[in-house]
Specification:
Number of helices: 8
Structural class: alpha/beta
Strand content: 15-25%
Oligomer: single chain
Shape: globular
């Protein structure tokens, strides 16, 4: 019997991608021996708190630059291509149909574990995917759903922090890959007037 593939999925807005995203994806790939972790930019977040975000084209281009030298990381553009709101259940239903030989591992931060009961069709979703949660605080939130906890180094970097740094006309050097920083500067992204 053919060996099943093990693929991790790290979803997010990636507005912009930064070193904490990359380190987390790479660490999970290594710790649980995944074939690859795919970074999966969302089209429109399904959450109530809508975020202003830059065009998907720029977010995808920055992701490509950020992962180009790491074979453990790849891209999954299914949510961008599908358009509309990005519900994880719809995405995983489609991915499991397209890749019946693959087990998917959905990577989430500890803050999202408490939020799982509110996820769209969560009871169906847990049958399609394994949740891998990254510990971000000393206390682990309880979950009625099966979650595998992993420890990775804590890098308190956020996309919001990076956008705010740009808004203050500073460069967030060392918070994100140099190639991504150069892309942002070249394309005039995250200027205060766009916020």
């Amino acid at each position: 019997m053919k060996k099943r593939k093990k693929i991790g999925l790290l979803g997010g807005n990636f507005n912009p991608i930064h070193h904490a995203h990359l380190m987390m994806a790479d660490q999970v790939a290594q710790q649980i021996s995944l074939d690859q972790v795919l970074l999966m930019p969302e089209n429109i977040p399904p959450h109530v708190d809508t975020k202003n975000t830059i065009a998907a084209e720029h977010r995808v281009n920055m992701l490509k630059l950020a992962i180009k030298d790491n074979p453990r990381l790849g891209l999954e553009l299914i949510e961008i291509e599908r358009g509309g709101k990005s519900y994880s259940y719809d995405t995983l239903k489609l991915l499991t149909q397209l890749h019946p030989d693959t087990d998917f591992y959905f990577i989430i931060g500890s803050d999202m574990v408490e939020y799982l009961p509110k996820w769209y069709k969560i009871d169906e979703l847990i049958k399609l995917v394994n949740f891998i949660a990254i510990r971000r605080t000393p206390l682990l939130p309880e979950s009625p759903y099966p979650v595998t906890w992993l420890e990775t180094p804590l890098l308190p970097i956020s996309s919001t922090m990076i956008r705010e740094t740009f808004a203050r006309q500073l460069e967030p050097t060392y918070l994100l890959p140099q190639s991504v920083l150069q892309y942002i500067q070249k394309n005039n992204l995250y200027k205060k007037k766009h916020e």
